[in-house]
Amino acid sequence: MNFINHYFFKQVGIWAGILGKDDIAAEYWVRASYFERAPARSLITAANHLTLAKRFADSEALLRRSLDLDNTQAPAWFNLGFLLQKRNQHEEAISAFDQAIRHQDKLDRAHYGRALSLMALDRNIEAKAALERTVDLQPMSPYGYYHLAHLQFRMGDEKAYRKTTRKLSSFEPKLAVQIQKETGVDAGVQDPFDRLK
Predict the structure, then answer these.
(1) What pLDDT, in 10s, does the model give residues 34-73?
(2) Which of 100, 152, 97, 98 is nearest to 124 (CA)?
(3) Which run of H or E residues covers position 185?
(4) Is pLDDT at 111 greater than 60 in this prediction?
(5) Average of per-residue pLDDT values in the chain
(6) What's the CA gap between 113 and 54, in Å, rounded?
(7) Does the pLDDT at position 158 exceed 90?
(8) What is the DSSP code (8-state) at residue 188?
(9) Which of 37, 50, 161, 163 might form a disulfide with 152, Cβ 3.0–4.6 angstroms?
(10) Cα-flanking dihedrals φ and ψ of residue 69, to 5°?
(11) Domain 1-70 top-level CATH class
């Protein structure tokens, strides 16, 4: 009977999520967790649905509950960092992102989230290192390159800024052109679609 209940709750959670009914999805993922030996992952999934439903406090409570059960879950630490960052609690967010990275060093979005909080605190040297790690792990990270180019520009390294902007232009030319407009410094990139207008 437990297996049937678990299967049913999980299926309802999956289908409710597909249909965009995130409140219902969260409820059924929590129910499924009651039948699991290691419920942390189902609680993390429920928390993700609560975040999508903009129930941030409830999502945070579930994430903290999942971490009480298993504090090695990098996705829970990352999601907690994201929620803390949304509230401008950047020091706490950095700590959460650090935990995510500790348990899964190649989680590029944790390095990126960490960089955004570091930039918010004007800790630019650390932010630059975090963004460099982001684009190293995810070579097609448009906003990783975007923020890295801006940071290089602000730190006065125009040579690195131009190189990063040209790299971004190879797969996101519109964003690279946008950086040039925002900084006022020509990195030699153009939107190839402008010729079609």
Answers:
(1) 998 899 999 999 999 999 999 999 999 999 999 999 999 9
(2) 152
(3) none
(4) yes
(5) 94
(6) 19
(7) yes
(8) S
(9) 161
(10) -80, -35
(11) mainly alpha
